[in-house]
Amino acid sequence: MFQLARFMNSDRRFIADTSWRRPENGTVVLAGSPLTLFSLSQAGKIVAECIEHGLPLPSGHDSLTNRLIDAGAIHPVPSAADREVHGVQHVTAVIPAYIRTAHESQALRSLVVQCQPFHSVIVIDDDSPHALPELGSTLVIRNDVNQGPAAARNAGLARVTTEFVAFFDLDVSISRSTIVDLLPYFTDEKVGLVAPRVKSRAASDALSEYELVASVLDMGPDEARVAPGTRVSYVPSAAWLCRTSALQSIDGFDESLRTGEDVDAVWRLHAAGWRARYQPQSVCTHSPRQNVQQFVQQRISYGASAAPLAIRHSKKLGPVRLNWWQASTWSFALFGMPFVALCVAIAAAVSTRRKLRAFPQLGNLGTQLSFAATAKSGLSIARALSRVWWPIGLIAAVFSQRLRIIFIAAALGPALYEWWKQRPHLDVVRFTLLKMLDNAAYGAGVWKGVVATRSPAPLIPTVQKSATNEQ
After folding, report:
1. Which of 4, 16, 253, 379 is the most buried (most CB within 10 A)?
2. Signed CA dihedral, 261, 267, 273, 276: sign only
3. Domain 88-290: homologous superfamily in CATH
4. pLDDT at residue 7 above 60?
5. How far apart are CA 126 and CA 193, in angstroms?
């Protein structure tokens, strides 16, 4: 530690991603999503040691740290100075509102009050069938025809004059720290979007207990870069903080999309060179669905967005992402040849080890990672079978006892594993049933979109040559 001190002349700090591995404290790092191998110089090794110990970085680190950030291998830690650069007075809140009940009207009023510290608040009344509450000096834009959330947000964005714009769904609750904790990340001028964690609001019924650990809006406890094909491939626009110029540079949201417009915008920001970040240290809450019917309708609508998104973003919406070794292993297993599947998995591990033999400090890590990735890919296939491919699996199960067993295992296995991992305040039977309903509803939505667009793209797995990148 003392030896590192003489190199430090920067107050910039980063923390390593949960995937970070540097065997033998050497010059090789495996980290990021997808997993990337970095070969470090001696100067790079010093940077890695500073990151691991939470120390300021030496000069000349930018080239390496930018590559590590863009791979999702490290994450920035804002300094005290970063927290002083931007304030909430530089933020305009935009709230699209389609009010159908008195409860939603009250929720909107409450959210507008929570947004009062900001520069201004803009509410877009998207032809609501229920009257909006009295909102005081809030700017209200009224649409004569319901145009959907994308058009509503764009209407609000057109009126924003501040450097930053925050988008909130009307049933979100925020605190002052929700936005204050996100603003420091914009000292990186490449950052166009930062999103908080959206946790489901606690309640006592079974559906709410399920949503506490399985909400589609909750991206989990680990911070991440946001990009297609990564651990956090999108963030829901239930709560966003954006650099106004970044969103304007991609012409805002695609108004032809009624759902999935947030996924599309995130991916277009990424394609335009902007960074997007997920920072779960900042938290807001979202109301869960009130009943099973609303729950199913929400999942179907999300699934239905997959096909239109797949048409716009080729090969980014596959239900599962595999390399050739994994695809071969599980294909042989599916067709009743487990010994051949095991041989392929072993061959994949040997191939990975040979590929990494130029880095002897990795030892057996390459082999371990290969077997772990194969096992994880099997879980991903099971999830896809119970979620997106279930109509195909159900038909196959009618004609084959072996496929019937596989289909039942795919439906139950991932749900039971998630219950065991999350340990919710909900018994395993009800959690598993709700998870199966969740998956079935989303899959039904995917097939609905496939039929409507005549595009099978969201049903086709993405198979690539390798699962690990090298830099």
Report:
1. 253
2. positive
3. Spore Coat Polysaccharide Biosynthesis Protein SpsA; Chain A (3.90.550.10)
4. no
5. 24
Cis peptide before 34, with omega less than 30 degrees from 0?
Answer: yes
User: CA-CA distance, 158 to 274, in Å (whole number)?
Assistant: 20
**Mean pLDDT of all residues in 185-204:** 94
- Dihedral of alpha carbons 372, 375, 378, 382, sign: negative
Query: 467 in helix, strand or coil?
Result: coil
Nearest Cα residue to 29 out of 58, 79, 64, 80: 64
- Angstrom distance (rounded) from CA 399 to CA 254: 43
Backbone φ and ψ of 75, nearest 5°: -135, 140
Q: List the one residue out of 161, 164, 172, 179 whose CA is nearest residue 198.
A: 172
- For the residues of 104-140, what is the DSSP string, one character each? HHHHHHHHHHHTTTSSEEEEEEES-SSPPPP-TT-EE
Query: Nearest to residue 228, comparing CAs of 265, 194, 201?
Result: 265
Task: Name 457's Cβ contacts closer than 8 Å, sequence gap at least 6.
Answer: 307, 310, 311, 314, 317, 318
Query: DSSP letter string over 166-193?
Result: EEE-TTEE--HHHHHTTGGGGGSTTEEE
Band the pLDDT of 469: cuts 50, 70, 90.
low
Residues 6+ apart with CB under 8 A from 16: 31, 51, 52, 73, 74
Contact 345, 411 (CB under 8 A): no
Could you report the per-residue pLDDT of 217-269, keeping only the tens digit for each? 999 999 999 999 999 999 999 999 999 999 999 999 999 999 999 999 999 99
Q: What are phi and psi of 231, to 5 degrees?
A: -60, -40
